[in-house]
C-alpha cells in the first residue's frame, strides 16, 4: 500500500536529489545498524517523506558523510543521521513487519514470511518505545482487515482507518504542532489508501480480491475517483501549508504537489495508449 509518497525526481535540482537521497541512505544505514541487513528490504520512500517533513519542522542536529554500501559498491553516496532518522527507521521496521504478515496471508509469499520472522523479535522493544504509534498501526490494520472481510462497499471507512494510522505516524511528539500533523496525516493516509485502490482495481477485479470500489458494484468511474483523490490531497496540503517549514520545503512541495501523482499519471498514459491501439 505504501510507495506513492515519493519525489518526482525529474523536477528536482541536483542538490535536491542529493539531499533526498541522503535521507533515504540515512534511514537505510540506521535500519542496517539497528536491525540487520535483511531488514533493509522493507525500506519505503514514504519514510523519506516522513523524515524530511519532521526534520524540516523540528530541525534536529544532523551528522553525515559519504560511504559505499552493498547496494552501491562502486560509488560513495551521501547520508545523514539524526534522531528523526532513527524514528523513521523504527517506524519503517514496524510497518514492514505488518506488511509482510499481510503479504503472507494474502499471497503466501515465502519471502514475506521470512522477513516477518526476522523482524518479529524487534516488535516488543519498538512497541515499548512507541506505544501510541504502534497501537495505532495495530488497531488500524485490524480495522482494515475486518472491513475487507465484510467486503465493505464504502471506501470512506477503510480510507479513514488507514488515515488514523498515518495521523499517528506523522506525530513524532505531542506538542503544539501535533494537531496540524494529525490532520495532515489523516488526509495523507486517506489519499494513499484510495490511490492504492484505484491503481489496483484491474488486478483486484481479475483476482477477485477486495477493493472498495469493486465492492460498491458501480464499475470503473475514473473521473469520480480522480476528483476524490484531488480533493483529499487538497485537504492534506491545506494542513501542510500551515507548518512553518523552510529547510527542504522545495523537496516536500515536489512530493505533495507532483510526486504523489507520478505513478497514477504514468498508468493513465499507458491505459490511454492501449485504448488508442485497440480502436
Topology overview:
Layout: H1 14-35, H2 45-58, E1 63-67, E2 77-81, H3 83-107, H4 110-120, H5 123-129, H6 131-149, H7 156-170, H8 178-207, H9 212-215, H10 222-240, H11 249-257, H12 262-278
Antiparallel strand pairs: 1-2
Helix pairs in contact: 1-2, 1-3, 2-3, 2-11, 3-4, 3-6, 5-6, 6-7, 7-8, 8-10
Describe this structure in words.
The protein is mainly alpha-helical and 279 residues long. The protein has a domain at 130-243. Helices cover 69% and strands 4% of the residues. The protein has 12 helices and 2 strands, in the order ααββαααααααααα. The protein has a two-stranded antiparallel sheet. Helix 2 (45-58) packs across helix 11 and helix 3 (83-107) crosses helix 4. The longest helix has 30 residues, at 178-207. It is globular. The chain starts with 13 loop residues before the first helix and ends with a helix. The mean pLDDT is 91.
Question: Helix content range of the residues, please?
Answer: 55-70%
Low-confidence stretches: none
How would you classify the helix and strand content by structural class? mainly alpha
Through-space gap between termini: 33 Å
- Mean pLDDT level: 91
